[in-house]
Amino acid sequence: MLIRGGLLADGVRADVRVDGDRIGQIAPDLPVDGSDVIDAGGLLVLPGFVDAHAHADALVLDPDVQAALTHQGVTTVVLGQDGVSFAPSPPGSGAAEYADRYFAAINGSHPTFRGGSVAELLATYDRATTVHTAYLVPHGTLRYAVMGADDRPARPDEVAAMVRLLEQGLDDGARGMSTGLEYAPASSADRAELVALCEVLARRHRPHVSHMRGYEDRAPAALAELLDLARTTGVGTHVSHYHGPAERLGPLVDDALAEGLDLTFDSYPYLRGATILALAALPDWLPLADPDRTINLLADPAVRSRLPPRDEVWPRVTMSWVPGASWAEGLSLLDVAARLGMTPADAALHLLVTTNLQVGCVFEQPPTNSDDSMRALLRHPAHCAGSDGIYRGGHPHPRGWGTFARLLGRHVRELGDWDWPTAAQHLSTTATRRFGLHDRGTVATGQRADLVLVDPATVTDHATYDEPRRLATGVHAVLVDGVPALLDGRLTGALPGRAVR
Q1: Of 170, 306, 387, 420, which sits most exposed with the smallest number of CB within 10 A?
Q2: SS3 for 372-401, per residue?
Q3: Residues whose CB falls within 8 Å of the CB of residue 297, separated by 6 or more in sequence, listed in order
Q4: What separation, in Å, do the N-terminal and C-terminal C-alpha atoms of the chain show?
Q5: What pairing do the DSSP bridges indicate for beta strands 272-276 and 389-390?
Q6: How much is the pLDDT for 83?
Q7: Are the C-beta atoms of residues 355 and 324 closer than 8 Å to each other?
Q8: What are the b/e assignments for 161-173, b being 16+ CB within 10 Å?
Q9: 265 burial via Cβ count (<10 Å: 0-12, 13-18, 19+)
C-alpha cells in the first residue's frame, strides 16, 4: 500500500509505503510498483493514537465502540485500568465475577470470558476488533482473587500469592499493573503490599499505573504515596486521569522529574468526570466490594444515620447507566429525586439498592479544577492522552467518542496548546514508550504500520453531554498493522486489532 503525498507531523511532504504490517519506505515520489494507493493530499500522516486509559475491557468488542475509537484515529487502547478488570481470575476465586459486578457500569460485561488467566482474556481480543489492546494486571482483581472482599491489610502469605499472580500475568503479556486506590478492596492495601508488587514491576521494567487515593485537594498526598513507592522500588510510575489545580499539581510532577523519577500521567480535555455512583455516594467504611453485604447494611436505619452528608455532591451528578430504570439516564440526580418524590440522598440510595450498586454517573468536577488548569496539564511534557472512556449506558460521558478529535480540533487547531509534532508526541509517542510498545508511536521505517490520516482543517469532535455518542469527523483513514480499518471516513469492516503481548 502506498500513502501518496501526505504531510508528516513536521510538515515534510512524503509518500509512505506500507509492506505488510510495517512501514517499508518514506520518501518523496515513491513509485507505485503495484501498490494500492491512498491519496493523502492535504492530510497529515500521524502515528496511530494510543488511548492510555480506556474502560473498554468488554465493550471494545462492540462495533459501536470500535467506531467511536477508530473515527478518532485510535489504534491501541490500554485496558485493565483502575485496578479492576476480568483477569487473572483463578478457578473458584470469584475474581472475574467481582470485576464484572463491581465495575458493571464502567467496563461492561465481557460477552465470552468468565474467568481464567490474562493469556485467556487477551486471546478474546485477537482479530476481533478494529484496535490493538494492551492490558495492565489489575491490582484490585489480584487482591480479590487472593483475599476476597476483605477490607484489611494483607498477610505476608497473601502478598506472596498476589506476587505470583502478578508475575504470571506479566508472563502472559500484560504491560504493567494498575492500582485503583480509591476502590474496594484495593483501598485497604498498605505500603508493604504495594512495595512487594512494585518491586516485581521494577525488575521487569514495567510501569505502575495508578488511580490515586484522591484528586483535586487530595492529589498532593496521593501523589506522594506513589512517589514513595517509586523511590523505594525504582518502578516507573504513571498517574491516571491527573486533574486539579495546575499551579499545585504541575510543580509536583516537575519536582519528581528533577529528582530523577520516571513519572508520566494522562488526562482528558473535559471538566466533568464519570464513575460508579457508589464511589460518589457511599463512604469507604462500607464493604463496597461485597454488594450483598453492603445492601444488607444499608437496610439498617442505624447504618443509614451514619452516612456522611453529600449535599455538595448531589447537584453535580447526572445518571449515565441505571439498569432497569433507563428513564433516569441523562437526568440529574436532583431531577431523579424529584420524580421519585425523595430527597437526593434517598434517591441515590434507592438507585443503588435496587440495582445491586450497579449505577454509573457523570459528575461535574469541583471548582478547584478549571479550563486553564486542564490546558496547563495537557501542555506538560510528561502528559499523554487518555480518554478514560466509559461506553456503558444510555447517556455516558462524551469523552469516549470525542477526546482525541477534541484535542486535535480544539487544542491544536483552535487554541494552539500544541503544534502538530507535539500533538503526535502526546497522542502516541509518549504512551508507546510508557507501555513498552517500542515498535510503534512514530512514522519511521521499520515501525508498525499503525497510521492515521487526519485533515487538520476539519478534524472535530461532535459528542456532547446532551448527545454523547456522536462520532468524530475529520479522520480520513486509519491503518492498523497495515490493514485499513477506516477509509474515506468510513469503517471498512476489517478487524485487524490484536492483543499486544
Answers
A1: 306
A2: HHHHHHHHCCCEEECCCEECCCCCCCCHHH
A3: 286, 287, 303
A4: 26
A5: unpaired
A6: 98
A7: yes
A8: bbbebbebbbebb
A9: buried
pLDDT at 376: 97
Helices in 148-245 by DSSP H: which ranges? Answer: 156-171, 191-203, 219-233
Residue 110's SS3 state is coil
CA–CA separation, 93 vs 161, rounded Å? 13
∠ Cα 496 131 470 (to 5°): 125
Determine contact, residues 53/78, Cβ cutoff 8 Å: yes
- In angstroms, the CA 406 to CA 269 distance is 7
What's the pLDDT at 368? 84
The residue count of the chain comes to 501
Q: Is 95 left (phi over 0), alpha (psi -120 to 50) or beta?
A: alpha
SS3 345: helix
Which ranges of the chain have pLDDT less than 50? none
Residue in the block written with cell 447537584 = 315
Query: Residue 429 in 3-state DSSP?
Result: helix
* Look-up of cell digits 447526572: 318
CA–CA dist 95, 273 (Å, integer) = 26
Q: Are 442 and 450 in contact (CB under 8 A)?
A: no
> Could you tell me whether strands 22-27 and 13-19 are parallel, antiparallel, or unpaired per DSSP bridges?
antiparallel
Mean pLDDT, the chain, whole residue set: 97
- Domains in the chain, start-ordered, CATH in brackets? 47-271+373-438 (3.20.20.140), 274-364 (no CATH)
Note the pTM of the prediction, 2 decimals: 0.97
3-state SS, 296-325, equals HHHCCHHHHHHCCCCCCCHHHEEEEECCCC
Contact (CB, 8 A) for 429 and 47:
yes
